[in-house]
Each structure stands twice: as structure tokens, then as C-alpha cells.
Amino acid sequence: MRGTVSPKLTDFLALANSNIALAKQNNIQFTPTILRENLNKLGALMSDAPALSYITDKTLTLADRSIPVRVYSPAPNNALPVLLHFHGGGHMCGSVDLYDPICRHLASIAQCVVISVEYRLAPEYPYPAGIDDCEYALIHYAELLDDVKYLPEITIIGDSAGGAICTSLSMKSLTDKRINIDQQILIYPSVDYTLTSPSLDSNGTGFLLETTRIKWYFDQYFQSTDADIIKQASPLFGAMSAQLPKTLIFTAGCDPLRDEGIAYAKALTAAGVEVEHHSFDGMIHAYMLLHDIVKDECMKTYQHIAEFMAKV
């Protein structure tokens, strides 16, 4: 069923759809550079970024690479819950800088320490490089908090591809005892790389993120046509167990990824996992990057996260 979009997004989508149509008309092909630049333009719609008393860039250093991170705390002398953040962007786009306003809101509203991870992106670093970086950050995050007080519980959060990383790590935690996750927060997550959910058809055009672009993202990410590899990597088809972390999930009614997010929430619930699901029916994929246009919906999302974090 096709979603019905909020009137707040009408003008934004009219312009976006006009630009998409013009690009198709001129046969402009997707490239990492073009898509990264386009996503970064949404930064102009997040003008509200709260000040925090502690924001510091740090680095996790490995033998073959380093992983940049940004640490936020609204009160570094108070022991607060830890939220490890993996940004969205189709495994190809997005950055700590683009998501800086979101991480500031998370830290301020949810009163938590936020660690934002600059993981490697495809196509330069295909699957599973980005997951490997986030896994390392999850196992070693305490090394980043030597000058910040924090509580021992760990929650992971991600939107879109970041949600895919969260759910992939949660799936891996069932067999790898080095990975400890107390809770996961998923915002319009990508959990099915096989592209079989019905909303990919019903919501696949006209709502900013289009199914053709999702497929292109995944082609760059996997650089493989092996259906078994792609299905194995999809958390929706992974092992479901009551041992998976407590989950807060948000879906958007006009999102091509809507149905896989709902299916994942139902599968977790059936497995005995505690799940809280909120649907923003008039919203599109990436609505959290459109803060100035849909501020009420963004603030409600942050408030649900704050309430969830308060129970950790």
C-alpha cells in the first residue's frame, strides 16, 4: 500500500522529484560523488543544533587503519548511558559531520554520551568493511571515554544503513561473545538486501529515496551478484532469538524500506524480544535529516528515544 505523505513535505518533494526527473532526462548516471554531495545538501535543513559542554574528536587506531569518532556528552562529569551511533547513507554516503546536529540532539534530549563512528564507505571499501569498523568501535568504545563519566550499559543506534549495521552486529552477538549490546535503536532501518519487500514497489518512486537508487547502493556495497551472500547479510533472514537486544524501531509510512522494518519488528517480537515500534505514517525515508521541515516529528522521535534510553 502506497503511503500518504504529510503536507509539510509537499514542496520539498516537488523540488526533489523535479530534480530527479531532470537528471533522468539528461541521462545523468549515479556516482558516489554526486550522491554524497546530494545527501550533504540536506545538512542545510538541520539548522537547529544544540550546544553541548563536551564534544571531542578522537581516533581508534588499528594496525592497518584508524577509525575516527566524535564523542558528545551534555554533562561529562555525570555518569550517563552510552549510545553508539552509526549514520545512514546507503553504506556509501553520510558522515559524522553531516549527522552532527542529530548526535547533539540525541546527547542533549536523551541525556547520554553519544559516540558517532566514521566507518569506511563503499564502493572504495565494500561489504563488510563498514561493519568491521563499527564492530571494533563497539568492542573498544570504553577506550574513547577516559575523560567522560559513563554507565556500563551500551545501546547502539542507526538510521537506514546505520540500522543495517546495528542489526548485523546484533545478529553477530548471538555467536560472538566479544559483542555486547544491551539495546538497539533503529530508525527506518535497512534489514533486507534482497529487495523483496512490497513497499519497495508501492513507495519506490516519488518519496526522495527511490528503489532504483537503493539497488545501485547495494550493488556498490556488495560488488557481488551472489544471492546467497546477499541474503546471508540481511538481518531479516538471520537467526531470531530472545537473546537479541531490546529494540526500539521507527518506520516511515512513505518509505520504500517501510515493510522490511515492520517485518523485522514482528520477527523479533515472535522470537521473544522486547520491541517498541513507532510508525510515522506521513514521513519519508531520511525524515530525521529534514529537521527544519518536520521538526515536530523529529522531536517526537528524539523524545521516544530519550524515554527508551531512560529505561536502560
UniProtKB/TrEMBL annotation:
InterPro entries: AB_hydrolase_3 (IPR013094), AB_hydrolase_fold (IPR029058), GDXG_lipolytic_enzyme (IPR050300). Gene3D superfamilies: alpha/beta hydrolase (3.40.50.1820). The keyword Iron does not apply. Keywords: Hydrolase. Signal peptide: none annotated. The keyword Cell membrane does not apply. Residues 83-288 form the Alpha/beta hydrolase fold-3 domain. It comes from the Bacteria. This is Alpha/beta hydrolase fold-3 domain-containing protein. It comes from Shewanella ulleungensis. The lineage of its organism: Bacteria, Pseudomonadati, Pseudomonadota, Gammaproteobacteria, Alteromonadales.
